[in-house]
Amino acid sequence: MARLYEYQSKKLLREGGVPVPEGAVASSPAEARAIAERLGRPVVLKIQVWVTGRAGLGGIQFADSPAEAEAKAASLLGMKVNNYVVDRVLVEEKLAIEFEYFAGIVMDDAAKCPLLVFSSVGGTGVEEIARLHPDRIVRRLIDVRTGLREFEALNMVRKAGISGPTLVQIADILTKLSAIARAADARSVEINPMVRTADGRILAADCHLVVDDYAVYRHPELGIEVAREFDRPPTELERIAYRVEEKDHRGTFYFLQMADQAEPGETLIGFHGAGGGGSMMSMDAVLAKGFKIADYCDTSGNPPASKVYRAAKVILSQAGLMGYFASGSGAASQEQYNSARGLVKAFAEEQLNIPAVIRLGGNFEEEAIRILDTYLQDLPGRVEGYGRDDAPEKCAARLAGMIAEDGGMVHEVQPMEEPRVPTSAYSFATFTGRISFDHSQCLHCASKGCVGACVPKILKLDEEGKPVLAIPEAEVKKGKCTECLACEIFCNYHEKQAIFIQLPIPGLKEYRDRIRKKS
Amino acid sequence: MAILVDEKTKVLIQGITGREGIVRAQLMKDYGTNVLGGVTPGRGGRDVYGIPVFDAVEEACEKVGSIDASVIFVPAALVKNAALEALAAGVKLLVIVPDRVPIYDVLEIAAAAKSAGARFVGPNTLGLLVPGKAVLGMIGGRAQRAREWFQPGPVGVSSRSGGMTSAIAYDLSRAGLGLSTIVHVGGDSIVGTSHPEVMELFEQDPETKAVAVFGEIGTTQEEQVADLIEQKKFTKPLVAFIGGKAAKSGTRFSHAGAIVEGNRGSYESKVKRLREVGVHVVDAAADIPGRVAELLAAKK
Fold first, then answer.
1. Largest Cα–Cα distance in chain B?
2. Quick one: CATH architecture of B150-299?
3. What architecture does CATH give domain B11-121?
4. What tens digit of pLDDT does each residue of B73-102 get?
5. B residues 154-173 near A, CB within 8 Å?
6. d(CA A209, CA A105)
7. Residue A218: is it exposed, middle or buried by C-beta count within 10 angstroms (0-12/13-18/19+)?
8. Domain A236-405 = CATH 3.40.50.261
9. Which of B184, B195, B255, B280 is catalytic?
10. Which of residues 173-232 of B touch A (CB under 8 A)?
11. Fewer CB near the terminus (10 Å): N or C of chain B?
């Protein structure tokens, strides 16, 4: 996650020279007790979740002794807060707080600069502070090429009405905070409250830092598993989807789970958008029609068919779907036959039994719709393709109509089955998978249509008339085979079903087995 | 007239030998864009669809003369260097196509562009297109499609979504209205040329008689457009659609810019603010051409 927990954020502060309370994170009551013993004074225990207002939820507790800390930790660990189960508590020295301040750095999109905000009152949210104490807030744009300089910080804090040793201490913290934000590629960081204790120390009592998703690759030290911003930890299916995306730079695949069941009167559907804006507009259209979406998925940026296939397989790993809705902007620049072929392979393997509306408007949409019409007509569920002249609102209404007409079939999660590839097959690895040809069948094939269907033209017929690679295998693996899936689809529907394309999705088989066991 | 580019603009393509670079070089050239060269370090001396490839932007300028605009297709991690290279060579307009460019890299490019008196569009953009004259980036995908879909006319388009740039422009053309320039400002939270900056350019362009905007939740771009209108710095008829009505706060959708934090950037705040200053906010993107046509007719 690109959002760090309080204890992780504080570690970055400490390393960057910003004082934080003494303490450590515990994941068991015994650990909490040990930390309290080491500190040798009263402690505070704070649940580590991305939820504001933890105190109001009972997520912040105080303890005067190690034994009490152990008992309090036992009550906090395992506590349920929204989508979280608390698995860590931060155990810190209890502070005697005299004053509270606020400091934060956010991105100012108008100025195209980081913006530092400091307030001589803190504790509540910054919007609340701005409303109640506009005169106590000072703001300053930071020049990315120099960072915040000490004299700039000093003047800023002075203007917030602070003087004496506190002025110097806070200015120093702000200068360091600017450097920490930069070093961590923080999209935002907030110290709230920053406190002055009875003994004159200035400390970051709480801190939240969000790392820019796009810069996570520069920060292996942060151990961020899924570089995506949510208001909760990622689900298992989201992790599986993210691993697909991480290993395949061609186009983008974004997957968020939204709901696992529908309330009475709602209809749960799988949602597969294309393009950030088109997906959002399409999501708005289906929600306005009264659907509930199980997920928000976006495959765009000219993804190969294999990526769209994997996205569809992930979407169809959700139980209880009554429809499948795919829709993008309507005039996509990308070649839409790739998306069509990805869906064909996925829907055919699943033997999709629910209605699907696929809005594929864009480049080569006529071919894309023809692919859906030709290859998906025998499925138990009806699949209809639409183009750029059909608005998402109309397509959403069509899906509702189809669900009503077809009597409300419900999708069940199917086991993941490996195709039975003969051991003697001619086979080669592609960028993310493997293609095998059962040449014993190819001898009976009249059309040899796979060679003509191959979009990147990397197949040829050998002297016996069997399809083989026309280029070195190493180039295929590097991406010359674009995983367009056209050879397999052609062979499956027009010839001998002699081509097998395997596109693994690590973890999905086990996930589906578990889901099936549960239901 | 149009904004930002025309058929004479001298264009360079950085990353011309990559997966996207090759395909979109063909689009740009076939469409009629004045593409003078491409750059891929280490691949100088080759050519892509007859476009000469150089090792560096500076070298391209030495060999073909000054460059007005550079379209960048290099991997995200290399974008900062490529952009700074083009700015250092005196290029005044950059179109940064790649997605996933780190924010601090974008901020550095922004600071350098400001010092150089240059402008950039993107990152995470499909680019911009002036019907019949030039395309910078990958709008339309293929030249023939771009010619079919986008007709010249009086309407400017500015969008935070690439697909919606094309979809709205296509709908406007199909309705017989036609386009002056269409701009995809990019899907990220910090972009080089945002909606309000595009509005200022459209305001100055005599051929643009009305503007259509696709906005989204997140950022303050749409609110800034409202500010411009209030200050009478943008006075042309404006129709807007805002995506993300149903999105939850605190979760970002697939555009990095599309996240609502606190009270900032919500659907409601954008629609309210735009309507206050007289912008025609429609509930479905498909309603844009009809509303634009009404406004153009009323103007006459």
1. 57
2. 3-Layer(aba) Sandwich (3.40)
3. 3-Layer(aba) Sandwich (3.40)
4. 999 999 999 999 999 999 999 999 999 999
5. 159-164, 166-167, 169-171
6. 9
7. middle
8. yes
9. B255
10. 174, 187, 189-192, 194, 196, 214, 216-217, 219-221, 224
11. C
